Task: inverse folding
């Protein structure tokens, strides 16, 4: 049974995405419970997969019974199973959150929204579960296309931001496809493990070098790494709240997963570290990404835009961990994928809740928000702590590992960058918290009652509970991070590190 | 030199198309022209894949004309791989063509939204309107 989980994880949401329009045509209100029910299946399946991997090691599933390298193989190892659990958990939480927000922001588009939502989740899960290079491209485009459509529904300016994303996203995907083509020319195979086996003898061939560079640049575009990031902030900020709540934690992190997969599974680590110095370039791009993303975030007055620039900064942490290419660095990077999923999920859902209550999310309008929405803003505080890296939130642990990785690699400049970025994070998060918690609305003394009475004005429970789950997730991941590293992440690190 | 270029002409064609597409996407001011550039870019990748399936020396379409039983029997049938072109890249490109059509469709729909909002598809005019409205 556990082997079939690998197929169920994508097939159930894919089929359900086709049934949503039919059921929605009959009864609109049924879409939401259907989507939530359907998304429980990938979560159970991926937990089953992770359990099996922990118990008996990596396994593979042959789609349709065709043996590799001819058929499509779903090769499951620790990294796959780990990222699968993250994606399915976040998408389930966001789908629970979606009800009120979608009804308010796009009342007449509920049915197509849920259909595209499921397709997006299918695409993200598919990228991670598959062990076939071309299959990755197909799922990448499924995820990207549904993401374009969802983002374009958003607030004023969303279509224009989406168009830029379409152009850049297509360049990224096409570069990846070109890289796959070059690898196919030289190895005659598309199966990742098969390619990995045949490739080392050609490492000095120019075709392989070109393939590697095309793939890394393509994935870098999808990751929104610094010089390639221009599409991201507007696209994420203008998207509907639910969509940015799903896409912000997952999309760029799945691209980061792809980068780890290409660099350390398809190619051996030695290729990108020694034969072409991609990892060195990557660390510098990551460092610039961290600093520039944080500085831009400080300059924003719109909460969602600020958080979107923060994505560019945070993806820099992951890229830095990958680029350091040593044990602690990569541990930090993989742990940071988990942290970012929960932290960004939490803060974006809070931003969505604020938009739901106030209609916009300009930071200067946040006065007294802590009195009106204490639970939501407490969750935001936990998210901010995690972003800054205060124990026991999970952000602290991944940052510690990244700093240890930089120290082990004796690259002191990156230690400085990591520490400095924490200060920048403090600046832009605590500005929000200061306005929301400490800036008082000046009471009007001319009136008979000089004190303003504050009324609790929380978002509905269906939005509040997912936000609190995310916040709890941040704490749980932090407290149990040694266990997570011992049972899962240490097996992800390539043997040569 | 000329011989070197001619012997690998398929790669040159694809690279030229790729660069034309890239230039149109990044250099042109009109959003529809950007979209056309994106199409040229994707077509270049598709042509690249199609061309790598070709074999020289009288290779033909991969339709097996011999005795079907012999082929499936006991692994005895010998199929001369060199006499058939490689069908796999072509099959992959069927998927890529579908993807490219879907992307174009989504992009055109988004362009309609942009036109309704700004009443223009020129990049600099849209940026000016966005600046004026403070978005």
Result:
């Amino acid at each position: 049974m556990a082997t079939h989980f690998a197929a169920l994880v994508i097939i159930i949401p894919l089929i359900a995405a086709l049934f949503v329009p039919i059921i929605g045509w009959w009864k609109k209100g049924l879409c939401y419970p259907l989507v939530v029910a359907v998304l429980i299946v990938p979560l159970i399946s991926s937990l089953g997969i992770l359990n099996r991997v922990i118990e008996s090691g990596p396994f593979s599933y042959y789609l349709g019974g065709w043996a590799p390298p001819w058929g499509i193989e779903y090769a499951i190892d620790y990294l796959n199973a780990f990222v699968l659990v993250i994606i399915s958990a976040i998408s389930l939480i966001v789908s629970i959150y979606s009800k009120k927000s979608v009804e308010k922001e796009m009342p007449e588009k509920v049915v197509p929204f849920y259909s595209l939502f499921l397709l997006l989740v299918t695409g993200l899960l598919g990228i991670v579960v598959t062990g076939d290079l071309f299959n990755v491209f197909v799922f990448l485009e499924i995820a990207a296309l549904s993401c374009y459509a969802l983002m374009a529904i958003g607030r004023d300016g969303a279509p224009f931001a989406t168009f830029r994303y379409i152009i850049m996203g297509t360049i990224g995907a096409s570069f990846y496809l070109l890289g796959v083509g070059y690898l196919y020319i030289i190895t005659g195979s598309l199966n990742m493990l098969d390619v990995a086996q045949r490739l080392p003898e050609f490492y000095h061939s120019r075709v392989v070098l070109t393939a590697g560079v095309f793939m890394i640049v393509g994935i870098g575009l999808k990751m929104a790494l610094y010089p390639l990031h221009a599409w991201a902030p507007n696209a994420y900020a203008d998207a509907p709240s639910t969509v940015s709540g799903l896409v912000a934690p997952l999309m760029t992190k799945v691209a980061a997963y792809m980068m780890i997969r290409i660099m350390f599974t398809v190619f051996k680590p030695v290729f990108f570290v020694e034969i072409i110095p991609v990892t060195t370039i990557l660390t510098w791009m990551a460092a610039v990404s961290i600093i520039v993303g944080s500085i831009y975030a400080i300059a924003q007055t719109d909460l969602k835009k600020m958080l979107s620039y923060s994505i560019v900064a945070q993806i820099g942490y992951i890229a830095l961990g990958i680029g350091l290419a040593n044990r602690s660095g990569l541990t930090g990077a993989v742990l940071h994928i988990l942290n970012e999923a929960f932290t960004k999920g939490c803060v974006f859902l809070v931003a969505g809740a604020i938009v739901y209550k106030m209609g916009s999310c300009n930071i200067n309008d946040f006065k007294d928000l802590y009195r009106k929405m204490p639970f939501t803003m407490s969750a935001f505080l936990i998210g901010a702590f995690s972003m800054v890296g205060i124990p026991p939130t999970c952000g602290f642990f991944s940052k510690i590992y990244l700093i240890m990785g930089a120290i082990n690699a004796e690259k002191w400049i990156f230690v400085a960058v990591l520490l400095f970025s924490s200060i920048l994070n403090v600046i832009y998060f605590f500005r929000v918290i200061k306005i929301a918690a400490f800036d008082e609305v000046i009471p009007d003394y001319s009136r008979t009652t000089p004190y303003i009475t504050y009324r609790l004005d929380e978002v509905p429970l269906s939005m509040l509970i997912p936000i609190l789950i995310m916040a709890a997730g941040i704490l749980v991941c932090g407290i149990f991070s040694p266990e997570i590293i011992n049972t899962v992440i240490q097996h992800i690190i390539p043997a040569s590190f | 030199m000329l011989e070197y270029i001619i012997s690998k002409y398929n790669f040159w064609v694809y690279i030229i198309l790729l660069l034309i597409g890239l230039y149109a996407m990044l250099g042109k001011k009109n959003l529809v022209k950007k979209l056309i550039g994106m199409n040229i870019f994707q077509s270049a990748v598709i042509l690249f894949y199609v061309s790598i399936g070709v074999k020289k020396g009288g290779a033909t379409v991969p339709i097996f004309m011999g005795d079907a039983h012999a082929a499936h029997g006991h692994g005895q049938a010998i199929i001369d791989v060199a006499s058939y072109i490689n069908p796999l890249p072509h099959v992959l490109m069927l998927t890529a063509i579908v993807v490219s059509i879907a992307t174009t469709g989504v992009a055109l729909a988004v362009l309609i939204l942009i036109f309704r909002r700004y009443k223009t598809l020129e990049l600099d005019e849209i940026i000016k309107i966005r600046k004026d409205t403070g978005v």
Observations:
- The mean pLDDT of chain A is 89.
